[in-house]
TrEMBL record:
Organism lineage string: Eukaryota, Viridiplantae, Streptophyta, Embryophyta, Tracheophyta
Function: May be involved in both secretory and endocytic intracellular trafficking in the endosomal/prevacuolar compartments.
Transmembrane segments: 64-81, 141-160
Predominant subcellular localization, coarse grouping: membrane
The keyword Lyase appears for this protein: no
Cellular component, GO annotation: endoplasmic reticulum; Golgi apparatus; membrane
Similarity comment: Belongs to the PRA1 family.
Protein name, as recorded: PRA1 family protein
Species of the source: Vitis vinifera
Keyword Membrane assigned: yes
Length: 189
């Protein structure tokens, strides 16, 4: 007798392996929401804006499009500044775990008391909690300087990164690239 068309029974997965594979799957899927780093630093897409209005429009557009990348850049700069402060680094790692589960790795919106919390609100609350906890570890100047450097890096990029090669998605206002506009191939990467 043949087994054509039958579905083979899989071996049961242990709970710890199931959790690891679930976490790996969520990490892969959530990293898809950040924009490719190559797209972010394309040299041909960098230019000085003609006027202040164009600069503000670029900041607004790039902040919406590269939001997750910008958060990663600022957090990485903050992490580098805390390498010589072990207690602050431990606090930072704990808050990064909160960032991972509440911002980077979640599937749907955060729901509190039956109300859906916007992505930007979660980001601001996590940023404030991270900064307050790190201020309590007596590295105030270090944090302020690293945040200032991070904001300057992000603002500089958002001003000089042109937005003409980005495409706005109608649903959530996110920008998507349109790969071969003359053909029917559409890509969100």
């Amino acid at each position: 007798m043949t087994t054509y068309g039958t579905i083979p029974a899989g071996t049961p997965v242990s709970p710890s392996l199931g959790y690891i594979s679930f976490a790996r799957e969520r990490i892969r899927s959530s990293l898809g929401t950040r924009r490719p780093w190559k797209e972010m630093v394309q040299l041909r897409s960098l230019s000085i804006p003609a006027n202040a209005a164009e600069a503000f429009q670029r900041i607004k557009t790039n902040a919406a499009y590269f939001r997750m990348n910008y958060v990663i850049v600022i957090l990485f700069i903050l992490f580098l500044s805390l390498l010589w402060h072990p207690i602050s680094l431990i606090v930072f790692v704990v808050t990064m775990a909160a960032w991972l589960f509440l911002y980077f790795l979640r599937d749907g919106p955060v729901v509190i008391l039956g109300r859906s919390i916007d992505d930007r609100v979660v980001m601001v609350i996590l940023a404030v909690v991270t900064i307050v906890l790190l201020f309590l570890t007596d590295v105030t100047i270090n944090i302020l300087v690293s945040l200032l450097i991070g904001v300057v890096v992000v603002l500089t990029h958002s001003v000089v990164r042109m937005t003409e090669d980005l495409f706005v998605d109608g649903e959530d206002g996110a920008r998507l690239r349109l790969r071969d506009a003359a053909s029917s191939s559409f890509s969100t990467t």
